[in-house]
Amino acid sequence: MKRFSNVTGFKIKAIQTYNGSKFKNNILSSFLLAHGITHETSIPYEHHQNRHMERTNCLILEIARTSLLSANIPKRLWPFAFKHAAFIFNRVIHANSTKTPYEIVSVLKPSLVLLRVFGARLYIFNPLHRKDLGPRGMLGYNMGVAPDSKGWIFWIPDKGNLFIKYTNVRFNEKISFMTEHVSSIQASDIFDDSMILKIEKQDMLVASLNTHSDSSTVTPMTFEDVTVSPQKDHWTAAINNELKSMKDENLFEIVNLKDALQNQKVSDILSMRWVFTQKKGPLRYKACLVMRVFRQTKGINFEETFTPTPSFGVLRLLFSIAITKKWVIRTFDVKVAFLHSLIYMPAFVWPPQGTNTASGKVLRLNKALYCTKQAARCWWQHLTTIFVDIGFEPNKEYLSTYTYLSALGTSLLWIHVDDGALTASSPKLLG
């Protein structure tokens, strides 16, 4: 505290600590009394009174843990990892502030010239062997910036865990203590040849039982590949199934190109491509039309794309309420959810390959396909409208959560895209 006052010029008037024997002792009390510093302590087990310190300690712990694990440094060197973490923490801007902690205290912008990867390999110039035939350098690992000096602290395992401060070094931040030790492990130390032989035999047996393992079955990359594929009939059937599904869902409406050009330019008309996949199990052929959304232009064929998603903390709260009150819980998901919502801005598409659309015609999108940029928002708006119409009230703070109040009781609804959870005080409200 003396050093802090000398360096910053600030006079410490009060400190707050935990209400433990570590801070409540005669030595600290005498020091604080001599310097006129008030000592405030938190109430036992009321951790929220030290929430800022708790949060800071957690953040520094996370940085230190990550540094140790990423470099595979022994855990006994944790003090260096924590000092390195504190060095980083004090030089990063945090929430509700426009300055780093270092700048707030020192009024100087921090320099990151000395910041290096924790645990990185480095070579230290050895001044003791300038003239003899001994090695000119030593291999070590970075343990962070040395306090009160313009250099680093190095760990040298080969010298009996020697720690030194030095500046004349050469870093190799791509190699750490972990990288070297992992690369020294031989494949024979990990794999058992007899086990590999057993696995290969099992794979051969499974392959022999698979009646559909035809090496000639190649998945087409384009529509043109389908026309020359040995499985042309299967892929054509998959294409027809996809087009039929879209027609049944009323996804498109055929319109004249002239009518489309009244609202948009030719370059604004979107296009689609076919994507083909093979489903294992019994072998199934699947064709899917996807939109080239990179050609969508804001203000022409889409406007707003933001879609609120609820917190999983709210879902846990919903489950907690249901369990406490012994309510019934139902979970559900909506099949092909986006295909149920209307699109709110005109979007026109060139007819895809494989359709017999007449010349001079284009397709107008009626529904928000999965691949369009506004699809998720259209679905959320569509869903909210339905819930409001049947009596649910959206939560203004936690969007995508809804409450229903009636004479029968209370219902709570949580929606995450097309997955949902519903609980109610009465089974009658669940339908």
Automatic annotation (TrEMBL):
Sample GO molecular function, one term: metal ion binding
Record-level GO cellular component terms: nucleus
KW Transferase (keyword) present: yes
Transmembrane spans: none
Domain Integrase catalytic: 1-109
Keywords: DNA integration, DNA recombination, DNA-directed DNA polymerase, Endonuclease, Hydrolase, Magnesium, Metal-binding, Multifunctional enzyme, Nuclease, Nucleotidyltransferase, RNA-binding, RNA-directed DNA polymerase, Transferase, Transposition
Signal peptide: none
Gene3D superfamilies: Ribonuclease H-like superfamily/Ribonuclease H (3.30.420.10)
Catalysed reaction, written as an equation: DNA(n) + a 2'-deoxyribonucleoside 5'-triphosphate = DNA(n+1) + diphosphate
Record carries keyword Transferase: yes
GO BP: any one term: DNA recombination
PANTHER family: TRANSPOSASE, PUTATIVE-RELATED, TRANSPOSON TY4-P GAG-POL POLYPROTEIN
Protein name per Swiss-Prot or TrEMBL: Integrase catalytic domain-containing protein
Taxonomic source organism: Austropuccinia psidii MF-1
